[in-house]
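User: Batch of two.

Assistant: Item 1 of 2:
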Amino acid sequence: MERISLTGPRARGRVLVYGAYGHTGRFVVAELVRRGLEPVLSGRNAHALAAVGRGHPGLEVRPADVGDPAALEDAVRGVAAVANCAGPFLDTAGPLAAAAVRAGAHYLDVTAEQPSVQATYRAHGEDAAEAGVVVLPAMAFYGGLADLLASAAVGGRGGGVEEVTVAMGLDRWWPTEGTRLTGSRNTAPRLVVADGKLVPVGASAPPRVWDFPAPLGRQKVVRLPFSEVVTMHRHLGAERIDSYLSEAPLAELRDPATSGPEAVDGSGRSAQRFVVDVRVLADGVEHRAVASGRDIYAVTAPLVAEAVTRVLDGRVRATGALAPGQAFDAADFLDALSPWALTVELPGDARREPERATKTR
């Protein structure tokens, strides 16, 4: 893949992590440090930031509220990229992405919220490319992972994509406080793709049975699309995109008595297991790509950190507001995370260089 030349402050490798004290933000900070990058700790709570800073001596702390444009301008000054880990993203993505683009910094976030992704694409469809930066929402377990799997499954086949179906299986769900807050804030109708257009889900469909690979096996799933539908719609050109989630963990998510995630190893990961199973129908042939691993929050860190690394070293196909599969060689990206962060199974020919025309919507 041809590298895009990056100059100026983006070459210095400083990455502002907004929401650095949150559950996912802490994983992201640690992963960026592990990769030799320099996180700059930011967010709305100065006391919580200071506590994270004590665990990472030498890292700069820059408190900033998304409602304070001057503070955001100071926070993003001189950084290479912004990794936004603070939800609800309906509140944080707009101000942070705008501040990053104005400063000539790349912007990435980890939202599962469809309206937030749509708003980011609308706002930065032109100015990000003009600024020579990448704007990449939903670079996380929800959104980015399924998008990369679908893109890898499509590969270089070049034919029309008829359907993409995503099934996400969790054995448990210990929600963070941020997940609960985002759920209460995000009340917009969920969207799927039908006849090539984003449309509301409509009446609730009955649960269906999905045969996940090990360790989950057969489970009931319910139609519950997240940000991956919007990102895939941006570039795959599929006539139909649907997304499902295993039914049992939703009861834990909706139960206010369910505790948050608890670490079971030195990395801080919980014992939660997941499988993301993506099936792509292209030219009448089904292609399947699967990723499995532990802890949906923890795995977001290597996903967004790998994206930051590739954006900063120029391994991107374009600048502008992009979906993950538009920005990167999806198979190569997933291979870089397997098997230490994910176990990935791709179609046999998915690792051909997938240089093909994509449609931006």
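Item 2 of 2:
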Amino acid sequence: MSYQFLQLEQHDQVAYVWLNRPELHNAFNTMVIEELHTCFKQLANRDDIRVVVLAGRGKSFSAGADLNWMKQAGQASTEENEADALKLAQMLEALATLKQPTIARVHGIAFGGGMGLASACDICIASTDAKFATSEVRLGLAPSTISPYVIRAIGARQASRYFLTAERISAHEAKQIGLAHEIADAEDLDKKVQEIVDALLLGGPHAQAASKQLIQMVSNQSMNDELLRQTAQHIAQVRQGSEAKEGLTAFLSKQAPAWTSNSNNNN
């Protein structure tokens, strides 16, 4: 499928989704949101894709929402506004629930919805020149649809500061508060991304999908008998699968599991 504001590239088992609106710092409007949502839904059905990297063309990862688009939305009816906002929420949820591990490759600015995209990915790798912000309050808005993912990434206490002040967060600060997992100089950013991609390709794809489901299931839950039962059921189902049997057999025989053969051949 061809896109107007995205570029989708595949390198072996890795899909690179490039936001491609560089003249506006990859700000998104209705079309960008729809294209991202469609792209994520299609990638979710691709068994040949093991890892998804989200990145931005030009000087920035994403400046968030296109302000002209937001102004027009503010003049619409309540019902139209809710429908419009729901599309953004659904796009972010499609990214956050992809079965494949996801990496945000962040450089330049990641403001508002851009920070939401970075937070919705499983792993965030930022250039040392990156700047993050939940900038909405300075525009008289609130970071509503991105809030579940940003709060998941940095916690409610840090969100209490940055949601209210809209301060810019440096790459080093982003790592300190848990938003960025790794930072690298601009010239080494792709190298660092590749290191994480290589590590991900060593894991079993079904095990990784199950692990993502596990995080969703366990996060913010109190330890009780029901949670114990759920986690026991989860591992019981996983270890009965063919991938677990392959992985354990390969480990005990000191062989590489089958799922690494393609990635090893491609490196």
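The CA atoms of residues 13 and 49 lie 5 Å apart.
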